[in-house]
Amino acid sequence: MDNKNVFVAIALSMSVLLFWGAFFEAPKKDSQNLQTNNQIQQKTDNSITPNANQTPTINQINDKKKLSREDSINKSERIKIENENIIGSISLNGGLIDDISFKNHKKKVNGKKNIEFLNPYQSENGFYVESGWASVGNNIKVPTKNSKWVVEGNKVLTDKSPIIIKWDNKEGVIFKKKIELDEKYLFKISQEIQNNSPKNIELYPYAQITRNKIPDDIQNFYISHEGFIGVFDDELKEDDYDDIEDKKIVRETNEGWLGITDKYWMTVLVPEKGKNFKSTFQYNEAFKANYIINDPIKINSSLSETNNFRLFVAAKEVDTIDTYAEAQNINKLDLVIDWGWFYFFTKPLFFVIDYLFKLSGNFGIAIVLITLAIRALFFPLANFSFRSMAKMKAVTPEMTRLKELHKDDKVKLQQEMMALYRKEKINPASGCLPVLIQIPFFFAIYKMLFISLEMRHQPFFGWIKDLSAADPTSIFNLFGLIPWDPPSFMIIGIWPILMGASMWVQQKLNPAPTDPIQAKIFAFFPLFLTIILASFPSGLVVYWTVNNILTIAQQWVINKNTTVKTN
Question: Which of 19, 126, 334, 383 is packed most tightly, with the most Cβ within 10 A?
Fold first, then answer.
């Protein structure tokens, strides 16, 4: 009983590192498999698989040619895209949005090269958005990924000048796309069909995001979801890449959105409101997230019809995404940022630290300030817990004496220990409740710091140039004094060592285990965490270290002023 509170605290701390999925990954329901008559059939061209009396299935096979990104862009005629936040182009071969870079986010700290997000399909890292129309039975010639579109009027897409592209099927049907861009990351796409043929036609509008392969920088860490995402009938769904490799996932809904998300970036499709659609997440030579409207649009002879959808190719900036969710009336779009189960703690904490960042001008200082604020908030509870632990530590010699005195009489030992607890007014479990109450806040701030794009490439002091990256120094080259770059597993920086040292000091202030095996395990624990946390973002390690130091100060004062009488 004397070490129960310590064991609880350690077990909960270990869960942070080892069992993130149990806390942060939303439970996933078994997704329905697509029925046989809706399965994709492999073809050699870009077409729509016909299914009589059913919504057609989008079926497009990737070009196997692999070119460099630059060569792929130069290969096709293009329309330039640019506003204050993005730069890129649209390929007139297929009308694909396949070249987008983020102007305000760089690949490296203090670098000049932008984050390149969308890439042409011929490149190895092909990642692009296509849209169009599907025909049941392929009885109407529709544009494909290789169709040559032409520009009408303006040839540069900006937030002040939309563009219009056109494709003629030479059978009396003209397809047009009007593409608008706002000042940030939102594309509004209007797809028009002009039916100049003598017959009435029916077509199904669709849009699709295709990614050739899993991104090289994916972290595969449960703290942050990367992969397929969507909201269908008010329910958030998240599917990993390996889930989609195993099976195709199909959902039907009257309202929602879908896309592919990275840790810091996202591509999201929002179908026209009020249209029932079928969404498909699948792997077919490439990863695909698409939707198709279930009810056909009927275009009588000599008439025209239009379908609209919205596309976000965006950096996951909290204020920007929240503004879009509200202004565009898109339900739960803010959940594209993976706030986790403790959303109601995590997101408010972000706004607090963002305010402190704007106030101080340094994200590292903001981390220190919010750590101080949380410690102040829980100061009374921590005091209660630490006083209990201090009393437990103070009576440890007496407990050791009683165990030695009554080592052959367990019942008598238990009676004597309970009498000691009553005399000193000690509740052996009193330190557990405060720890449990603080756990949601602990996980929330940990999660918030890990996923925040706002922390990316933010410096602290000295050698920390990016709080979202691990401490770059290493004890194995004497923190840069020896001209040698150790392998990644040997990168144990100054801040992780400070964290481990502070944990060791904190451990010494707690009641020591009487069991020698337990004592050895406890002694190893700070070293273990130092090695584990060495690869974590330095912002997280700064938070943990500062929190440890504040805990040490509080415990030391309490221990110094806590006495017991055991005689």
Answer: 126
